[in-house]
Amino acid sequence: MVKLLVAGLWVCIVTLGAVFFSVRLATAPVAAPQADAKAPTELVRGESITVPMIADGGVKGYFLGRISFMVDKEKLKGINLPMSELMTDELFTLLVGNKMVDIANMQAFDLVAFREAIKVDINKRLGDGLVEEVLVEQLDYLSKEDVRATAEAPKSPVSPPVKIVEGVKVEDPASH
């Protein structure tokens, strides 16, 4: 008889515990789906630009580049400045002023650090969180001699530009 009473008490305790925890889990606060959702972004296409490489008091070559941005749509509405001009200024600063690219040692080029430097500097100028991602479509280098050889004798073979980054072609989503 005591065994039956202990077994009945045990079943009651387990049942009450299960009901208590199931009710507790069912009424737990749920994280808002809006908080986890990523902000809508928009593609801001960059223009093809040419940045001179200056060393020893003269032009040694040219960087050819095209960089685009994925920006927060809501924050972009409040910006009245032209993004392509800001990007061009930033590239001049990084490629000429900071000399992030060493043509003699191309293996040392850090694409992730290059993208992050552009993103951080533009976000510092325009407001934190505007630029979500930097997309490098093209970053090549042409020496001054290659440019001169092309201008003087366009039919002579010229060495191809040095590929710094093999980028991905960015298509505007609105064109599809």
- Largest pleated sheet: 5 strands, antiparallel
Low-confidence stretches: none
Give the proportion of residues in helices: 40-55%
Beta fraction: 25-35%
Run of helices and strands: HHEEEHHHEHE
- Total count of strands: 5
Alpha-beta content class: alpha+beta
Distinct helical segment count: 6
Averaged pLDDT, please? Answer: 77
Cα-based radius of gyration, to the nearest Å: 29 Å
Separation of the first and last Cα atoms: 79 Å
Explain what this protein looks like in three dimensions:
- The protein is an alpha+beta fold and 176 residues long.
- It contains 6 helices and 5 strands.
- Strands 1, 2, 3, 4 and 5 form a 5-stranded antiparallel β-sheet that branches.
- Strand 2 and strand 3 form a beta hairpin.
- Helix 4 crosses helix 5.
- The longest helix has 25 residues.
- The protein is elongated, with a radius of gyration of 29 Å.
- The model has no long low-confidence stretch (mean pLDDT 77).
Q: What's this model, at a glance?
A:
The chain is of the alpha+beta class and 176 residues long. The protein has 6 helices and 5 strands.
Q: Which key phrases capture this entry?
A:
6 helices; 25% strand; alpha+beta; 176 residues; elongated
Layout of helices and strands, plus pairs?
Layout (H helix, E strand, L loop, with lengths): L1 H25 L6 H4 L4 E4 L4 E7 L2 E15 H5 L5 H15 L13 H16 L4 E13 H9 L9 E5 L10
Antiparallel strand pairs: 1-3, 2-3, 3-4, 4-5
Helix pairs in contact: 4-5
